[in-house]
Specification:
alpha/beta, 6-stranded parallel sheet, 2 domains, globular, 21% strand, 5-stranded mixed beta barrel, single chain
Length: 303
């Protein structure tokens, strides 16, 4: 069997940033069908893995029922915990009941989660937390010694135990500098934002520069949607994929909230045509839809 040379493979570590950001919106009730905290933890881990595997930039969780407020708290806590580099977790996450079973989850292994045995090198970008000592800011990046934060445009209003991203300027002199998201050269992970309703999410996040896609049983094949995106004048800066709950599609949730979601989306897709089961759980839909979308975006050069 002929082995393709490295330049033709579709694997690269560190993974490249997407040219067009990919965001995902899903409801708090995604965990509602799971009967125990143990299973809710497992599903939260599945969701985190799906978002990371397909290089999602932003995850938007919207509250779709009062009954799922507790599930929202569980999901948010677990996602924030698992996206935190392991060497920072004891500083940023207190012991609480919803994190009881996080030990069963496989490592997320994001590019920002450097392994402990990896040597520090000049120019390396790391996640860290701030410690203020004698009025001066230092940063802990997982090593035995703290790094002094170099003065710069980003070094304003820092607080103790604030999470930051830094570049290691000098390993020998233990100096680091803050970097912005734009300066990170690879895919770094996803953010987590919470909204009180689907309507609030749509009004906050959907704009002319966002290509919003609704997943639904009543949708078309995905290639028709991405073909439309490829022909869009001016392109877009973000693709937003909107998912519904285990019981209702997102447009049905919107109708219950008193607005028509179809007025805000560019297309409606069905990523599992003629599905063989009565219902598809949201976390299952995430894997199916993001895998198909990832390949379609690659095919049309929208990466």
């Amino acid at each position: 069997m002929r082995v393709l040379s490295k330049e033709y493979t579709l694997f690269k570590w560190l993974p490249p940033k997407r040219r067009v950001k990919l965001s995902v919106a899903f409801p708090s009730s995604v965990l509602s069908v799971e009967p125990s905290l143990y299973k809710k933890t497992l599903v939260s881990g599945f969701i985190a893995r799906a978002l990371a595997i397909f290089r999602v930039s932003n995850s938007y969780i919207y509250l779709d029922s009062k009954e799922s407020i507790n599930d929202l708290r569980i999901l948010e806590s677990i996602l924030r915990y698992i996206t935190t580099p392991p060497y920072l977790r004891k500083y940023l996450h207190k012991l609480r009941s919803e994190l009881r079973y996080v030990g069963i989850l496989p490592p997320l292994a994001l590019p920002s989660h450097y392994l402990g045995e990896e040597p520090l090198t000049n120019g390396m970008i790391r996640e860290g937390i701030v410690f203020i000592k004698s009025g001066r800011p230092y940063v802990y990046v997982g090593s035995e010694q703290l790094f002094r934060l170099k003065a710069g445009r980003l070094r304003k209003d820092l607080r103790n135990l604030q999470r930051v991203t830094v570049r290691l300027v000098s390993i020998k002199r233990k100096i680091a500098e803050l970097v912005s998201d734009e300066e990170i050269p690879c895919y770094w992970g996803f953010t987590i934002e919470i909204f009180n309703s689907l309507k609030e999410l749509i009004q906050t996040k959907v704009s002319r520069d966002v290509f919003a896609i609704l997943t639904s049983k009543r949708g078309v094949a995905i290639h028709e949607c991405i073909s439309k995106l490829s022909r869009r004048k001016g392109g877009c800066s973000e693709v937003l994929m909107i998912f519904g709950s285990p019981k209702l599609d997102a447009d049905e949730i919107a109708y219950r909230e008193g607005f028509d979601l179809h007025d805000y989306v560019e297309c409606i897709i069905n990523t599992a045509p003629y599905q063989g089961v009565r219902t598809i759980r949201t976390y299952e839909a995430l894997y199916i839809s993001l895998a198909l979308l990832n390949n379609e975006l690659l095919r049309y050069g929208i990466q």
